[in-house]
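Morning run. Coffee first, then this:
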Amino acid sequence: MNYVIIGNSVAGIANIEAIREYDKTGKITVISDESYINYSRPLISYFLANKVSIKNIHYRNKDFYTDNNVELLLNTKAQKLDIKNKKVVLENNKKISYDKLLISTGGKPIIPDIKGVNLKGVFTFIKLSEAEKLQKYIKDNRIKSAVIIGGGLIGLKVTEALIDLKIKTTIIELANRIMAATFNKKASSIIEGALGKIGCKLWTNTTISEIKSEKGKISGIKLANGEKISTKLLILAIGVRPNIELIKNTPIAVNRGIIVDSSMQTNVPDIYAAGDCCEANDLLSSTNRVIAIWPNAYRQGKIAGYNMTGKKQEQYEGSIAMNSVELAGIPTISAGTPESKDKDSEELEFFDAKQSIYKKFILKDNKIIGFIFVNAIDRAGIYTNLLKEKTDVSSFKEHLLKDDFGIINLPKEYRKHMVTGTEVEIGI
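And here it is:
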């Protein structure tokens, strides 16, 4: 068997490991347009802040590829697919044949259509190479202040890194709050307050309308509300979309991302997809959806690998949107639906502004469909399992918000299931 993997991040690594469990001799070729053997993308903000060294950002060493007999092609871009002849065409026009192909090209940053986005001093922040260039630019230009466009997870993590570097930072967010996709107003207000305490300024309900330049470098920006901000550093953290350029003009089915079935196979036989570039089953809606989180990418890559060998069949049951992250020193976790406009849904809520604690559950038909915890994330694993398994919580609903909620509050039958049931894989 001749396996080709396009992409060398977590889904690709998991794919290699799964293939080698059942096929020790098949040829594996990995194509990556980056120059690194691999690295943990969630750690690049810590690398920028000098909290993690370049050596410690890798989660598999060089020996991983040789031990698994993998041909690793770095700094190599897959240009197009020749599906009829089962070949990947590289940028240098070299062709690589495959029997089974995994597309794990990840995501790409959303770039606003504004004049000046290509100026020196304007960066995106989803790759280690971008973090390295940003780190060098800050040092070479003695940057003292910065502007971040986007108050989502990427924007907040890079903000933390810049503040650690003693750089005054301003966040610009189009929505009426930060983390709008995963938090409601109350949850966001706690993090906004914490950011203010560490010196971060925040503008909401507006966005960038103009980038000003001086001698080929950014000198400032103008906002849609008319506000002008002088800055020598602008980071675009508006969001990420699936990187699906490679499948243009092919018969591979695509919506927002590459559509896959429960085996992670596309509509084209022998071509699979995994990670942030694909749409797989969402447990809550039972429809395909892009859920771009690290554990999902690993699990998808592994299941694709098993099925690619043909020697083990395993199905991807689906996942939920979930984020567990510390922001401005405050632990948070959110899962499923953060807000619901469904008249049949029910909300359970606890808010202590003085202690900066917030808890919220959204229920429908006595089943948890979403929750948000800020500064109180104990027992999140139990709540996550209740959500994933669509457990009827009516018999213990009044205990959900209590500080002493635990396994003892669950029905005896469910407690037995938790002990004997299968474990949930959450990482690598």
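The first strand starts at residue 2 and ends at 6. Good start to the day.
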